[in-house]
Amino acid sequence: MNKNRPFFRCTSACVLFSILALIVFACGGGGGGGGGGGGSSNPPGASAPTAVVQPLPLPGPYAVACSNIVQVFSRVLPGEDVTSYWEGLPDNGRPRYITDLLESLDNTLIATVTAPQDSNLYGDFAGQAVKFAVLVCYPTTNNNPRPDYPLYQTDRVVPHMQTGSDAPIFADDLVRYPVVVFSHGYMGSPISSGDYMLALTIGASYGYVVIAPFHGDLRFSNLKIDNLEAAIAVASNLENFTAMQALRPLSISAALTLVLEHPQWKDHLDATKIGGFGASMGGETMMLLAGAGLTTSYFDIGASWKQVTHDPRIKAAFGYVPYFGQPILPAFGRNQEGLAGISLPFLGISGTADTTAPIYETQIGMSRLTGPRRLVALSGVTHGFDAASTNDIYTWMLTFLDAEVRGNPDAILRFSTMGSVAGGGDDSVVLY
């Protein structure tokens, strides 16, 4: 039985890449795809870490609360899916985004990004101001009286959610907590799946303040391909697919700045201890935040690429099934050359059966990183959240972030020798 749950909906994108592949090969550009160039071997004479560690208990020791995202669900029209608003899916040209449902824009965290005047990166959105709603989850007291907030059309809740102008209730008002910025996968949102909600709450339960913007990817590029005509329309407007990817790291940085400077939050956060967690395309977003170059050409196997941004506040990042592109469309330029010299400490966990974010592309890309790096393979896992590996995934993530972001000596020692997590799925280190 396949225990993977969708974590990044890429069916349409994969169809698009297949179309691109046909075009590339038809034009004689089939050689020299994603392989080679970057090298994927480990340092000569180095041995992979082999220690088997026990899984961390989930959730962690803290109760979790979250910021205000109260919505007026009566605004969702009959026959509509509320996730269309959370993910930014237009309706016959009518824009939709979570801000259309929010009860109070003044009491919700909303970051604004003005896209630079660079049409190569931002397509039709160059120079435009774009809003991104932000959800923050954080460690709270065990007796936090605020009720959980039910999410319409789902069985999920936002735990102990603030309403109105409520200030956060921290577990300890005198502590400055480390921060994790969270980037969900393409066509998702922080609240669109139980897997994403689990990621936010697990991080907060271990004492991190988790900052998660609603990327609203479909506002910029909707890779919904129902027929050949639609596929051709998408393929002829690929600059907005680039824009969607380029806007993601800018929204993360803007959300981080917003919360770090907000009067209700700034005195409770440690701005020197900031990490990142990206799922699928969110893993690509973490690399772009580190200064990586993003592919800007599509019919020459990524010969052109350009740096989007660099946010030095982020000290380390974790990627689950991180998207480093396809052989015919590498995310960071041909042979992942846009990753050369990137020094951000990075831990990736990839599935060996993932065809959406192939592990070999991730390995090529990560081999170019110059900072601490480790790639863990989950045997037989495709592009989804593997429920059987839940404890493995979060034990790896928390140990890494505790080592690289918190600087916890015990975590540093444990991570240095960590080769797998006991029980769960079949996890092993392949790049170190």
General description of the model:
- There is one protein chain.
- By secondary structure, the chain is an alpha/beta fold.
- The chain has a single domain, classed as Alpha/Beta hydrolase fold, catalytic domain (Rossmann fold, 3-Layer(aba) Sandwich).
- Helices cover 26% and strands 22% of the residues.
- It has helices spanning 11-26, 83-87, 119-122, 194-205, 228-235, 239-261, 281-289, 359-366, 390-406, 409-417, and strands at 4-6, 51-53, 63-66, 109-114, 129-140, 149-150, 157-158, 177-183, 209-213, 269-279, 293-295, 305-307, 316-320, 325-326, 329-330, 346-351, 373-378, 384-386, 418-421, 427-431.
- The longest helix is centred in the middle third of the chain and has 23 residues, at 239-261.
- Mean pLDDT is 90; it is low at 21-39.
Looking at this protein, list some descriptive labels.
single chain, 432 residues, alpha/beta, Rossmann fold, 10-stranded mixed β-sheet, two-stranded antiparallel sheet, 26% helix
> What oligomeric assembly is this protein in?
single chain
Task: Write down the Rg.
Answer: 21 Å
The largest pleated sheet is described as: 10 strands, mixed
Low-confidence stretches: 21-39
The number of E-state strands comes to 20
N-end to C-end Cα span: 31 Å
Instruction: Give the CA-based shape.
Output: globular
- Note the run of SSEs as H and E: EHEEHEHEEEEHEHHEHEEEEEEHEEHHEE
Question: Regarding CATH, which class?
Answer: Alpha Beta
CATH fold description: Rossmann fold
CATH superfamily: Alpha/Beta hydrolase fold, catalytic domain
Instruction: Quickly give the CATH architecture.
Output: 3-Layer(aba) Sandwich
| Tally of helical segments | 10
Instruction: Tell me the fraction of residues in β-strands, as a range.
Output: 15-25%
Q: Kindly state the mean pLDDT as a whole number?
A: 90
The share of residues in helices is 25-40%
Number of spatially distinct domains = 1
